[in-house]
Amino acid sequence: MLPVVALVGRPNVGKSTLFNVLTRTRDALVHDLPGVTRDRHYGVCRLAAAPFVVVDTGGLVDHAEGIESQTARQAGFAIDEADVVLLTVDARDGLLPTDRAILDRLRRASKPMLLIVNKVDGLDEHGALAEFAALGVASALPVSAAHGRGVTPLLVALEALL
Ligand code: GDP
Ligand code: MG
């Protein structure tokens, strides 16, 4: 069995875009509308020394109801089955309460995680990372999924955890 890496985070932070970069497919739905990926979506990343499965999830939302609670449930399953979770946040939006809520959930699950600070293109990377330092996650990586930036350091950090 290949190790499993799950992409988790609020809607619209760039999870599906990162999934596409890691799996080099356009299978994941990338859309300007938040919450397009309702179900978990699987692919294989072959860019690192050893292959691993990538799971894309719909966005986790606070106080979710209806279809969004189903999405949150799917993300919960993805967290459960993951060996490592990539908690993805949006450098443009900055740190939001929902990011903290998702992190609390991950900490309760005691999963190894990396904090992916996405959308740093056109931003000061250090400033972007500093904002999320308040979360207290040791490994935070600046990434621009849309521009394929920061992917190699991400793969290196993942290799150390898998
Ligand atoms: P998801 O809901 O977390 O899966 O987010 P998506 O991957 O669907 O992306 C949401 C929006 O953010 C889309 O309009 C993407 O083009 C955009 N996006 C994703 N990654 C980046 C990035 O690195 N930089 C910028 N500027 N936009 C991004
Ligand atoms: Mg998505």
Question: Strand count, sense and closure of the main sheet?
Answer: 6 strands, mixed
| CATH H level, superfamily name | P-loop containing nucleotide triphosphate hydrolases
Shape: globular
Bound molecules: guanosine-5'-diphosphate, magnesium ion
CATH architecture: 3-Layer(aba) Sandwich
Function: GTPase that plays an essential role in the late steps of ribosome biogenesis.
Protein name: GTPase Der
Organism: Dokdonella soli
Keywords: GTP-binding, Nucleotide-binding, Repeat, Ribosome biogenesis
Ordered list of secondary-structure elements with their pairings:
Blueprint: E1 4-9, H1 15-23, E2 41-45, E3 52-56, H2 67-81, E4 84-90, H3 97-109, E5 113-118, H4 125-132, E6 140-142, H5 151-161
Parallel strand pairs: 1-3, 1-4, 4-5, 5-6
Antiparallel strand pairs: 2-3
The structure holds guanosine-5'-diphosphate (GDP) and magnesium ion (MG).
Magnesium ion binds at residues 15-16, 36-37.
Written account of the structure:
It is a single chain. With 162 residues, the chain is an alpha/beta fold. The protein has one domain: P-loop containing nucleotide triphosphate hydrolases (Rossmann fold, 3-Layer(aba) Sandwich), CATH 3.40.50.300. 35% of the residues lie in helices and 20% in strands. The protein is built from five helices and six strands, in the order βαββαβαβαβα. The chain has helices at residues 15-23, 67-81, 97-109, 125-132, 151-161; strands spanning 4-9, 41-45, 52-56, 84-90, 113-118, 140-142. Strands 2-3-1-4-5-6 form a six-stranded mixed β-sheet, sandwiched between helices. β2 and β3 (52-56) form a beta hairpin. The radius of gyration is 14 Å and the shape is globular. The structure holds guanosine-5'-diphosphate (GDP) and magnesium ion. Residues 11-17, 30-32, 34, 37, 59, 118-119, 121, 144-146 line the site of guanosine-5'-diphosphate (GDP).
